[in-house]
């Protein structure tokens, strides 16, 4: 009888299963693991019931690691409805063209209409932070409020977990993941809801979340109140920076009745160091005076593997600017 290879033993060790069990009879476990890692996420729940070794494999870090190293399998697209605590989010596997519904987020019976939250992925986990909603315990009922709640979805167990709440409730805020140090940084935000064209609160508070400790720590606030902004990281190591771009600040009224937002055309930048964060500095306007009154929807695409600067796109009517 042939002895199991060292890589097969390593797979068995990572899965913490009996070495007498095999993933696919007749194949080394490392080869079988690569084959099973190509299974679409939409089939995993059913395949977990096949046998004990498959149940361990599809619930292990090995599956995430193998999919991460296989570039075509490393990315999943997650789409959220307006209120993910009521309607389930969906993930799309672009390699296998397969959809799968996620369980709804843990729902409080007192709140509804969650929107303007931020979602981002760190490792094998998906994070959903903050947002604007309505609370039946507040008065008046038509006034939106911000949420400080945070949730983490673990793709290994396919379950949601509650996080320590943010220090400040916020929706429509800038956010970025510092994957190398397992941290998340958030900045600005407010309470405006999608049902309202304007109004709502604004804030300049900034804080950083330590994933391992499940703890939020306050940082120096933004130079101005800023909500509806976008955040992203630039650089690596000691030269890493957190950028906050666009958004709106203080609101004014027309004829003392109609609320109108004052939109920002600039960005602010904070230098991030291993021992803390630096001060904010201001960056010039994105366009000249009179070119446009407000920025369009800004989207940031980051590539962690290449380490390149993120690609920034803005939708302005029917035009896409880069």
From TrEMBL:
<dbReference type="Pfam" id="PF00646">
    <property type="entry name" value="F-box"/>
</dbReference>
<dbReference type="InterPro" id="IPR015915">
    <property type="entry name" value="Kelch-typ_b-propeller"/>
</dbReference>
<dbReference type="InterPro" id="IPR036047">
    <property type="entry name" value="F-box-like_dom_sf"/>
</dbReference>
<dbReference type="Pfam" id="PF01344">
    <property type="entry name" value="Kelch_1"/>
</dbReference>
<dbReference type="InterPro" id="IPR001810">
    <property type="entry name" value="F-box_dom"/>
</dbReference>
<protein>
    <submittedName>
        <fullName>F-box/kelch-repeat protein OR23</fullName>
    </submittedName>
</protein>
<dbReference type="InterPro" id="IPR006652">
    <property type="entry name" value="Kelch_1"/>
</dbReference>
<feature type="domain" description="F-box">
    <location>
        <begin position="27"/>
        <end position="67"/>
    </location>
</feature>
């Amino acid at each position: 009888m042939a002895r199991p290879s060292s890589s097969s033993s390593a797979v068995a060790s990572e899965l913490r299963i009996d070495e007498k069990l095999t993933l696919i009879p007749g194949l080394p476990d490392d080869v079988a693991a690569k084959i099973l890692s190509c299974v679409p996420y939409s089939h995993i729940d059913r395949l977990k019931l096949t046998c004990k070794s498959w149940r361990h494999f599809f619930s292990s870090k090995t599956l995430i690691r193998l999919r991460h190293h296989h570039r075509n399998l490393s990315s999943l697209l997650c789409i959220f409805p307006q209120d993910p605590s009521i309607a389930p989010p969906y993930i799309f596997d672009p390699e296998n063209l397969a959809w799968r519904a996620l369980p709804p987020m843990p729902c409080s019976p007192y709140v509804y209409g969650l929107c303007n939250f931020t979602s981002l992925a760190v490792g094998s986990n998906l994070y959903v932070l903050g947002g604007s909603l309505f609370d039946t315990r507040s008065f008046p009922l038509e006034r939106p409020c911000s949420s400080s709640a945070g949730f983490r979805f673990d793709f290994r167990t396919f379950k949601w977990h509650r996080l320590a709440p943010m220090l400040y409730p916020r929706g429509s805020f800038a956010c970025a993941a510092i994957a190398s140090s397992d941290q998340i940084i958030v900045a600005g935000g407010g309470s405006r809801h999608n049902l309202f064209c304007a109004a709502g609160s604004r804030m300049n508070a900034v804080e950083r979340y330590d994933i391992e400790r499940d703890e939020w720590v306050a940082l120096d606030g933004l130079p101005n109140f800023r909500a509806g902004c976008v955040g992203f990281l630039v650089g690596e190591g000691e030269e890493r920076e957190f950028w906050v771009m666009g958004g709106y600040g203080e609101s004014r009224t027309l004829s003392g009745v109609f609320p109108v937002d004052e939109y920002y055309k600039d960005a602010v930048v904070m230098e991030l160091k291993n021992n803390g964060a630096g001060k904010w500095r201001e960056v010039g306007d994105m366009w000249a005076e009179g070119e446009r009154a407000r920025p369009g929807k800004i989207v940031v695409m980051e590539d962690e593997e290449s380490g390149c600067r993120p690609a920034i796109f803005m939708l302005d009517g029917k035009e896409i600017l880069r």
